[in-house]
Amino acid sequence: MVCCTGVVLRFPSPNRPLSVRLSLLTGALAASFLSGTATAHAAKYAGIVMDAKTGKTLYSHQADSLRYPASLTKMMTLYITFEAMRSGKIDKNSEIPMSAHCSRRPPTKIGIRPGRSIKVEPAILSLVTKSANDVSCAIAEYFSGSETRFGKVMTAKARGLGMSKTVFRNPHGLPDGKQVTTARDMARLGIALREHFPEYYDYFSARSFSYRKTRYGNHNKLLGRVRGVDGIKTGYTRASGFNLVSSVRTDGRSIVAVVMGGRTGASRNAQMKKLIAEYLPKASRRGAGNLIARAAPAGVQYGMTIASIDPSDLPLPMPSPAFRQPQTITQSNAVVAVAAAPKLPPAPVSAYAPVAAPRPQKIIASHTPPQPVAKIDTIKTSSTVASPGQWVVQVASVGSPQQATSMIDEMQQKASSLLGRRQGFTVPFVKDGTEYHRVRFAGFSGKSDAWSVCKGLKRQKIACYAVQQ
Fold this sequence. Notes:
It is built from twelve helices and 13 strands. It is α+β, with helices and mostly antiparallel strands. The relative contact order is 0.12.
């Protein structure tokens, strides 16, 4: 007999006693089941180790294949929370109310009753340590009014950070078949959290926190046990397996490593320790500065599924329910910026920085509005210079064709040794009735060439990012 896993099951000889035959057959079936289980978990596994100083991939296994993030999702929830703190829209003592809906989120949770609230700082710590689903939900409602709307904001922010394959549908990572990511995208998010919020990053090093006389330990068991590990986040659902993103800094070297789809928490941790031991010594002690650019002043381009949101454009908290404590943020200046949930893009991970666009001022409906009619441009545009799928480098987003022309001329003079004969062009788009122009350069042989030139521009203090046209 051949089982579905490919294990051949041979029935014991009928000459043996029945009890012996049953015992042997049971053992064979168990072996088949365990073999199938191991195969399934092996198929889930994905991992990556990135040099956090140079961006070089030191190790990769299925790093661009779609996986379920589980509670790694909370890294993005925290990223957006940190942006709000940085911008002054909230502070660590701001009160986040708990709705009945959020209080019913399944564990893990800290059990805040509906009508009560939690301050921002313990809310952050509850996500980092306990991985509290109820608090993650409350944060989403606080900023965007619902988990669904916040998921769209999260996805837009992911695009802004170059996480090209990630789709968020909720703020906590509870099972949703359409909420997916990759090991590479999670590594980018881990690096972005370190680079963009050094003043808040230490929260990820907390081994425990106490709230209302209860102490909650951190699920990340590598903290304090593996030299140099300073965060970041664990995750688990039955569909995802055991996930972990780790940040390591020691001896002048720095990496961010990701393990997804572990069979158990122990095997996941063992694999992470192995990756750290093997690849940290290969990381560089020298780097060229930050790898992940913050989202530029930006908005959503009509008809596109890619969007980015600047920290200054972060959605302010929704109007207060009756039980919420008074806040300095009022309904009159609240902004909710969302975009249509994108389909899974086949494109590879984009380069270091997001697509720039003007500031969002209203909710973008889930349908795709008609494309605006492009005006005649006196300079070269994407249709005449770069074909779809080609790698280009963007250096600015400006308000007029004249500014775009001047920017192209300026870049060709300031960085002639890097840009050479590569052609400048514009990508016009319309937001709220106003036309803007992205300034880009084409003529690169591929992704590596575009990235290399962009790195050189950054060394000359010229902001840029590489992206597929």
